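Tokens for chain A. Residues wanted.
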């Protein structure tokens, strides 16, 4: 079995300090949090950033400050996967800007529109194609975020059009109100719906995070945990930190005799050539 790639989604756009006071917001806080997550076994940091007031931002300057702080704090250096999803309602141009300006190793690529909690997350086919083109031009490896089976079909069409390279690295984000639910059957269905040449991971939202992570581990997928998706450690008990959520997965993997991929191994597995 291949090693398991663990992602920490440390901040997100929708999570607030009201939901969990330990949410990292500033570059220094994100760097300390990322370092603890890497020490606990995370190979990828899925990164959203905030402006000086703590509001979600897609500003390349805000990203740059966070990236520099994280790179300085983490040994080994994790893959920093920038979000191009941003916050629901962000303009397509602002979401694309960090790709053009910063050319990260990896970034999320959202391909389908949907209700997203009380918001609407719009990914117009024209903007998705434009975004995918920029990923290719800049050599950025996309992680394709899919919240619904129809998004897999959209991604397959983008592959056929030559806008996404094989292997596709899917992220099944399950349990978003408005997307596919977090039932284990849905994970199996999503895994069975992709081309076997492609790879996949799962991010379970809220109470779905842990059961989906444990099942994905046994099924050979990547795993994502963190405050972007879930702020609880147990029912009614807030997680103390992102690293606490990462460590629990690392401990379960170790108990099951599975090995986590170090960042450099994850780069090789994902085709990140630098
Ligand atoms: N904040 C969500 C609307 C991503 O990072 O690419 C979108 C999101 C996905 O978080
Ligand atoms: Zn995200």
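Reply:
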């Amino acid at each position: 079995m291949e090693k398991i790639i663990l992602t920490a989604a440390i901040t997100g756009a929708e999570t607030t300090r009201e939901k969990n006071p330990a949410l990292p917001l500033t570059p220094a806080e994100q760097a300390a949090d990322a370092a603890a997550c890497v020490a606990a076994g995370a190979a990828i940091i899925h990164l959203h950033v905030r402006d000086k007031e703590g509001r979600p931002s897609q500003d390349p300057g805000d990203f740059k400050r966070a990236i520099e702080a994280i790179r300085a704090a983490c040994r080994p250096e994790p893959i920093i996967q920038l979000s191009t999803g941003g916050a629901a309602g962000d303009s397509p141009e602002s979401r694309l800007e960090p790709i053009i300006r910063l050319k990260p190793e990896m970034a999320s690529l959202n391909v389908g529109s949907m209700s997203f909690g009380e918001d609407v997350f719009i990914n117009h086919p024209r903007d998705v194609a434009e975004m995918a083109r920029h990923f290719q031009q800049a050599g950025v490896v996309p992680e394709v975020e899919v919240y619904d089976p129809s998004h897999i079909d959209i991604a397959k069409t983008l592959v056929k059009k030559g806008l996404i390279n094989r292997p596709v690295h899917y992220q099944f984000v399950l349990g978003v109100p408005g997307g596919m639910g977090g039932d284990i059957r849905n994970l199996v269905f999503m895994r069975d719906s992709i081309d076997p040449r492609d790879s996949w991971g799962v991010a379970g939202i809220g109470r779905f995070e842990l059961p989906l992570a444990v099942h994905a581990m046994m099924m050979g997928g990547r795993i994502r945990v963190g405050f972007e998706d879930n702020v609880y450690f147990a029912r009614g008990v807030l997680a103390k930190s992102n690293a606490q959520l990462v460590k629990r997965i690392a401990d379960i993997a170790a108990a099951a005799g599975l090995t986590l991929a170090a960042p450099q191994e994850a780069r090789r597995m994902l085709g990140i050539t630098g």
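The radius of gyration is 17 Å. The first strand starts at residue 6 and ends at 9.
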